[in-house]
Amino acid sequence: MTLDARDLEELTRSLAERLYLQVASWHLYLGDAGLAATLAEECAGRLDQGAAVCARQALEAVQVPIGGGGTRLPMARLVPPGQLSDLEEVLQPFCR
To answer: What is the domain partition of the chain in residue ranges?
Structure first.
């Protein structure tokens, strides 16, 4: 399933404002990190699998550059567990 440009923009905006990476006690929102669009695009291609599967697979697929890009970690390792359910909630309206 793919999203039209307007829906993809809406998804990106929702992810940017609601989801964050956690490093120590710091919360870095995806919009500030410049990762919201990347996650939205990964999710858009998986929406037909349902919100729960889509969320888990997309978080594993997005590689986050650390320390200038020499190292990359799956976003799933940097998102606290509670954010997974938030991501599923954001994705639910787009899974039609």
So the answer is: 5-94
**CA nearest 61: which of 71, 48, 46, 80?**
46
CA pseudo-torsion sign 17, 19, 20, 22: positive
Contacts of 76 (CB under 8 A, 6+ apart): 56, 59, 60
Cβ–Cβ under 8 Å, residues 35 and 62: yes
Question: What predicted TM-score, i.e. pTM, was given to this entire model?
Answer: 0.93
Residue 2 reports pLDDT greater than 90: no
According to DSSP H, which parts of 1-96 are helical? 5-18, 30-33, 36-44, 51-61, 81-91
Q: Are 30 and 21 in contact (CB under 8 A)?
A: yes
3-class SS of residue 96:
coil
Tokens of 42: 């990964």
